[in-house]
Structure formats: structure tokens, C-alpha cells
Write a structure and sequence with these properties.
- Among the domains are: about 80 residues, no CATH class; about 35 residues.
- The radius of gyration is 29 Å and the shape is elongated.
- With about 180 residues, the chain is α+β, with helices and mostly antiparallel strands.
- A hairpin with a 5-residue loop joins strand 9 and strand 10.
- Helix 1 packs across helix 2.
- The longest helix has 25 residues.
- Strands 1-2-3-4 form a 4-stranded antiparallel beta sheet, with helices on one face.
């Protein structure tokens, strides 16, 4: 398995672009085309890279495997919490596989649906970016976010003062005409 393929598979999973279907298939979004999706069925992928990938491990097949394993671990931990059992011991990485160094933060591929919104959080204006593989899910998340952080009422601004009004002294200034025809307050 090549490292770039693994890195791309991890990015696909982290971006939420893998969906496990009830029939055992996995639907994986394409990184290069926001509308294309591949189905991984019985370990086989429809993409053009599948036949030429080492041992047919294309990034979509790897992403589906990572997602399936992560989902199984989450279900296992949730079951342990709901039944009150101790969490199963985490399995350390096998000794024959070296731990990979932390990868630098690479930019994520563009999501099929994304939006940015500014909200006020603890008195500070912050920008929140929502990304999703489905526009309807993204809009539902945006609606929940906007309900959680409603727009705060702006303080009433000062009434507009008439032209030539001095805000510092709160008096009307006198318009002066210069010899050259220009006027100034």
C-alpha cells in the first residue's frame, strides 16, 4: 500500500465522504469530482484506479475499510458505556509496524457542499466553516448552528446629526466661506 493512497483515504474519511449502506456496500465520494461517487462492494471498487492499485487497494477501498473499522470501534465503545462495562482495552499497534510521524497539515480537498458563517461566541466574532458531502445535511447543520448562536441586537446608534454638527461639543458649527470660494466647517 502506497502512503499517498493512504493519506488520501484518511482525508476522505475525515471529510465525512464515506457512507456505509444497509446492504453492506460503502458509498465513497470522489475527491476529484464533487458529484461522482464510487461503491465498494465485496472489497471491489468501481474506480479506474482499482485494477492498477497495489493488490487492488485504491483510496476508496481503503477509506471504506477505515470507516467500517472506526464505526465498529465506536459501536463497541458505546455498547460498553450503555451497559456500564469497562471499556475494552485499546489494542496497541503491532510491533512490526512503525508508527508514522505526524503528517503536516495539508489542505483538505474541496467538499461538494460548504459554507462559512460568522457568529458571536463569548463576545467575539468567529468564522465557522461547515463542510459536508450533502447539501441538505449541511443546511440542517447550518440551521442548528444559527439557532444556537442567534444574531445579537446591535446597540442603538446615535441619531444622525445634521450637517455641520460638532459631536465633541454638541453644537452647530458655522460654515465659513474662504476667499478662494471654498467652504469649510
Amino acid at each position: 500500500m502506497q502512503r499517498p493512497c493512504l493519506d488520501k483515504a484518511v482525508a476522505i474519511v475525515l471529510n465525512g465522504d464515506v457512507e456505509l449502506l444497509a446492504d453492506g456496500k460503502a458509498k465513497v465520494a470522489s475527491q476529484s469530482n464533487g458529484t461522482t461517487q464510487y461503491f465498494v462492494v465485496n472489497g471491489e471498487c468501481q474506480c479506474k484506479d482499482y485494477p492498477k492499485a497495489p493488490s487492488q487497494w485504491c483510496k476508496h477501498r481503503i477509506a471504506a475499510g477505515i470507516h467500517k473499522r472506526a464505526a465498529a470501534l465506536v459501536q463497541q465503545k458505546q455498547a460498553a458505556v450503555t451497559t456500564g462495562q469497562a471499556e475494552p482495552p485499546s489494542q496497541p499497534a503491532p510491533a512490526h509496524q512503525p508508527t508514522a510521524p505526524a503528517a503536516p497539515n495539508a489542505p483538505l480537498p474541496e467538499a461538494p457542499a460548504s459554507c462559512n458563517v460568522y457568529v458571536t461566541l463569548a463576545g467575539r466574532q468567529v468564522q465557522v466553516t461547515l463542510r459536508d458531502s450533502d447539501e441538505q445535511r449541511m443546511l440542517a447543520r447550518l440551521d442548528a448552528l444559527l439557532q444556537r448562536f442567534p444574531v445579537e441586537a446591535e446597540p442603538a446608534s446615535e441619531q444622525a446629526q445634521p450637517e455641520g454638527w460638532c459631536r465633541k461639543h454638541d453644537v452647530q458649527m458655522t460654515l465659513n466661506q474662504g476667499k478662494d470660494g471654498r467652504s469649510s466647517w
